[in-house]
């Protein structure tokens, strides 16, 4: 059975008993009797499940199952890898670029007119920051623009990997990158991408999107 590969009595318990997001899980004292494990072993497995994002643990509400998402499962491994060697960010960035390009057309066709106008407002906000006094780095707008383009994909693995990219981006301090000419160029591309989408020119938007993914290579040089 698939559950036997989980290597965790606690995770097997959740799956075999069909726990759903929001369901309350019995306290450790009850689980100790049901699973025949020590409290220390249960705490260890509970913490592992919490880091995977499978459960939430709060003082008053106890243990509850969470919605399954892929991002928590890769977050700690990714950060650990970058702590060992931050040049791994380049490899992960290449993976992210291929994912975004592959899913771009599918993702943007799911966006509504309201979604596109929201993306356009992020472009305007970013340009205001770059042209303001003092100049401000529009990192949040950058992150939100990319994630919102793909937000309606019903694929937790794609979304998890894209979220992981921005976690890595911040971990290696690229969110404080201050080459203003580079940032202006990035947002010129973003503006053109969104304008193409608003005009229903998906092919033109994708071509511009692919071209703009090559900018990070210039920055790294």
- The CATH architecture of the largest domain can be named as Up-down Bundle
Query: How are strands sequenced across the largest beta sheet?
Result: 1-3-2
Name of the CATH homologous superfamily of the largest domain: GntR ligand-binding domain-like
Number of strands: 3
**Tally the helices: what do you get?**
11
The radius of gyration over CA amounts to 21 Å
Derived from helix and strand composition plus strand pairing, the structural class reads: mainly alpha
Strand count, sense and barrel status of the largest sheet are: 3 strands, antiparallel
Average pLDDT score: 93
Quick one: CATH class of the largest domain?
Mainly Alpha
Binned, the helix content reads: 55-70%
The CATH topology label of the largest domain is: Four Helix Bundle (Hemerythrin (Met), subunit A)
Q: How many angstroms separate the termini?
A: 49 Å
- Whole-number total of structural domains: 2
Order of helices and strands: HEHHEEHHHHHHHH
In the predicted model, the low-confidence regions spanning at least 5 consecutive residues are: none
Strand content: under 5%
Shape: elongated
């Amino acid at each position: 059975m698939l559950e036997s590969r989980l290597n965790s009595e606690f995770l097997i318990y959740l799956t075999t008993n069909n726990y759903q997001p929001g369901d309350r899980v019995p306290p450790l004292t009850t689980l100790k009797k049901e699973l025949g494990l020590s409290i220390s072993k249960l705490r260890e497995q509970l913490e592992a499940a919490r880091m995977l994002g499978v459960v939430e643990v709060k003082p008053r509400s106890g243990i509850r199952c969470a919605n399954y998402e892929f991002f928590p499962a890769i977050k700690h491994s990714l950060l650990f890898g970058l702590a060992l060697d931050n040049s791994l960010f380049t490899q992960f960035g290449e993976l992210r670029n291929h994912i975004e390009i592959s899913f771009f057309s599918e993702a943007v066709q799911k966006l509504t007119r309201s979604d596109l106008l929201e993306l356009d407002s992020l472009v305007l906000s970013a340009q205001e920051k770059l042209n303001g006094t003092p100049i401000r780095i529009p990192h949040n707008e950058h992150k939100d623009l990319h994630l919102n383009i793909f937000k309606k994909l019903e694929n937790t693995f794609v979304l998890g990997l894209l979220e992981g990219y921005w976690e890595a981006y911040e971990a290696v301090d690229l969110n404080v990158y201050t080459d203003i000419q580079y940032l202006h160029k990035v947002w010129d591309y973003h503006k053109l991408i969104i304008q193409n989408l608003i005009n229903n020119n998906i092919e033109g938007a994708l071509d511009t999107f692919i071209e703009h993914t090559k900018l990070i290579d210039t920055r790294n040089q």
